[in-house]
Amino acid sequence: MLFKRLLVITLLVVVAAGLVSYAKGYVLFQASMLLAYVIALVGLNLLTGYNGQISLGHGAFFAIGAYTVGILMDKADVSYVLAVPAAGVVSLVFGYAFGRPALKLQGLYLALATFTLGVVTPQLLKYKHLEPLTGGVGGIVLIKPDAPFGLPLNADQWLFVYALVVTGVMIWLARNLIESGSGRALRAIRDHEMAAESMGVDNRHYKSMAFGVSAAFTGVGGGLSALAVQFVSPDSFTMFLSISLLVGMVVGGVGTLWGAFFGAAFIMFVPSVAESISKDAAWGVYGVVLILFMFVLPGGVMGLLARLRRGTPVTG
Fold this sequence. Notes:
The chain is mainly alpha-helical. It has 14 helices and 2 strands; from the N terminus they run ααααααβααααβαααα.
């Protein structure tokens, strides 16, 4: 197992080094955005895959993270090095504040509550009394940070390297959380909430913290996306973003960490491919691709890889 992890990490480092050395600006932008989605999908998986709580509104926390970075850098002249972690902290507070009263909701009712969160957030960002902070419909323009310490990297290359480091740290934190006692408590609640409580697990605490930690990861992803795009506006965080995050998690594999890379790639590239096939019916093509994907790989990409390792025949 350790050898496989080292092999995967080595391959990722080689790919990353190749991108930094040879890729152009737009490719590096896409790679940075992909890593932002990876972090967000890891966060959503902590909530849904490992704790069993459904969220249709994680785009709201993605937006909160992006706006935290935008406001801190634009209004308070805070360095991006501090702004991105701050995005995680602010999103954690909002996630916990939402998750605590939502404890009484389960299944479809919780999904509807989070759906409302995803719908309302873009409208709140346009609220006239918040315009001095959020910029209203005009949003906030950011400047991509330059490489520090005189490193021979342009802004696009440095941002990708920075996003890669942040992604590595967040995945390491998620792995440690999952393998800790708290992670076992989260999975116990997912598998059987009543049995977990009878064994002494504080369901209220762990479910609330799962929402908070999940929101924190998603907020960090949103903060990185704000740096990559160099712009945040309410219309960038529509309900479709929340749905896309849920789709990406399912495509990669529910209850997995590495599946976030495959899910992020799906979010990034499949809509563009669908539009190239048919501009008039791009979302129709997207829907067909998604349906076929679910029939062929009901367990996601990581489920397929697990079956191949076991030698199990791949069937829908």
